Amino acid sequence: MTVTTTQTFQSRLRARTIGCALIAAGLLQPALGSDIEPVERILNTARAFAAATAGTSPDQETLIEIGQLDSRLQLTRCAHPPTAQLAPGARTDGHTTINVRCSDPVSWSLFVPARIERHLPVVVLERPISRQQVIGPDDIRIERQAVSTLTNGYFTEASDVVGLASRRRLMPGQVLTSAHVTQRRIVERGQEVTLFSARPGLVVRMKGTALENGVEGERIRVRNTSSKRIVEGYVEPSGAVRVAL
Question: 186-242: what fold?
């Protein structure tokens, strides 16, 4: 995993940092000389916590940005390294807030805005895909993306999507999510299918008409061509429909 950190954030983050840093009581109380908590130690605590929160992966690249603190801060030096945790309701990636705290010799707490951005190889469309088109190996590519913005999920392996069908028209460059794909439709409504039922030593086959679309393993209704009865069965990979005797 590659981790990149920066202390300088965007201007809005700097402004937000000042407001957050002054929230906890007593943060501007004077302290002198060696009694002052080094700002760099506070930032390093937040940075180390952010790196631990991002986790590790062989293919992962992580960008960590930590907001600046108010230069007027004069906190009593913590007797031990400060601790850190996510602020209540904060996210584990993207724009977030880290709560840095001390309990000895005095208690103080402040909130440090941060951005934790994980970049991973994900499946992206190489070419346009029409609705219900089966996705092939040449239709996709693997591309590194910031995954915190992919709120609908993503795929990391080409094998996860090859052979699936698109739910709607998709454009090149789109990151594929589970909302975009479904199992390939094997049976179409109105299609003539083979109904079969099997048990040891006996297989019965007959013709029928599918009354519903169906993917592999899905239960659909079929009208028996001979008896006109409507039965229910499970779609097989071959396109036949398995029914109970």
Answer: SH3 type barrels. (2.30.30)
